[in-house]
Amino acid sequence: MVSNEVYERARLSRDARFDGQFFVGVKTTGIYCRPICPANAPKSENVSFYPTAAAAGEAGYRPCLRCRPECAPGTPAWSGTSTTVQRGLRLIANGALDDSNVEDLATRLGVTSRHLRRLFNTHLGASPLAVAHTQRLHFAKRLIDQTSLPMHDIAIAAGYGSVRRFNDSFVNTYGRPPRDLRRVGKNGAAAADAALTVKLPYRKPFDWQKLLAFFAARAIPGVETVAGDRYLRTVRIDDEPGIIELRHEPDNVLLTLHGIDTASLFPIVQRCREVFDLDAPIGEIASVLSRDPALKSGFRSHRGIRVPGAWDGFELTVRAILGQQVSVKAATTLAGRIARTYGEPVGKALNVEGLTHLFPEPDRLVRARFNNVGLTSSRAETLRRVAKAVVNGSLSFDSSQDPDAFRESLIAIRGIGDWTAQYVAMRALKNPDAFPAADLGLLRAFDTPGRKRLSPAQLEKISQAWRPWRAYAAILLWSSAPGSGG
Prior knowledge:
The protein is α+β, with helices and mostly antiparallel strands and 486 residues long. It contains 21 helices and eleven strands. The protein folds into three domains: 62 residues, DNA Methylphosphotriester Repair Domain (3-Layer(aba) Sandwich); 109 residues, Arc Repressor Mutant, subunit A (Orthogonal Bundle), CATH 1.10.10; 214 residues, Endonuclease III, domain 1, CATH 1.10.340. The strands form three sheets. The protein has a five-stranded antiparallel sheet. Strands 3-1-2-4 form a four-stranded mixed sheet. A hairpin with a 2-residue loop joins strand 8 and strand 9. Helix 17 crosses helix 18. It is globular, with a radius of gyration of 24 Å.
């Protein structure tokens, strides 16, 4: 059972990752809300918590008309409608409304246009057209400010069907054409870009060096690398290889694309924000973790803590399986061998900083023999089982799924235990409360001369005080013991 104190911490953070996991009854108004409700947060003494919307209703509370609890993740209303909205957002991001209308979009989604508008307003608080317009406009403005791309390329990258519509949209919003908004240098012209670079702002404080060190220790040879102050990796976008590069400057992480069409920039930006945890509610996390003596000193030197994400859930799961009962360095070496043997070469044109391969897709490993890789037969069989589960759809890495359901589906695969499931949930699903209590590095962090090492059950009990931010606590503990952590 989760204590009311944990629910209270999650409520105050308004972190969307907790939406649908519990509901808040407000005694002074008689309504119940989702933890992400935008209304002013009531005082702690005026709230009670319920595991389901039905339980809150049974207690006499009525649903909030503002945050619509009946549509929260995990509820019957959400299970079908959220999928429709997510598919709609994906189609909009890919330009579905550039040269078409909401009626056509609704037809593609198998619903009426009226129902689609209702779903968007329920889940997002905005209509499909408003989402498309805002998405395109803001994204295009950033490209104008931060790059010297031609206006035609910006129009296409931002999802406008034509330069004319691009110009009309800017004139209607800003009162002037986009060319007038372009940032210019002293000589009156923007400098040419060797590659497309955009800025990703983040919540402060932000410990880039610690995050970089974590990735550096686990970088799969040939697939990803840390070179100086930069993180680079190969990615597959629409079945084509490319490379993303990220580096830090004050207030922003700079994202540069190599060999990637600008039309794919928007989803890449969103993925990078998750991988580098740029939106973590660091203030709420600090208020919980810094109170614990076991974490206080680590937090003092690591105030900008982040949980490193993963570009691909399957890749991370393979990496986690390889890390079972071996060192981080050994697991990294094995992952590099698999990438070289079964991954797709990116070609000489994209060979940057020794990046040579895309990590293999699941279907490439379903029948892989893993000869000369250095795996035990049992470990190789586990990898094949995971690959098969992804291919047949019984395992997915959709971050919107219930964390407990994901854990159950992963540990149902022979050869995978709770440690792997928690580690993958922490990094691939971005579950802020995932905690691999059986991890040797975490257990070692509590070693005291002359005392017996903690058991996983004891550490699990201790970790209850860190909820709902146990994933961040794990990162703090791993940082105190370099080389630990999968």
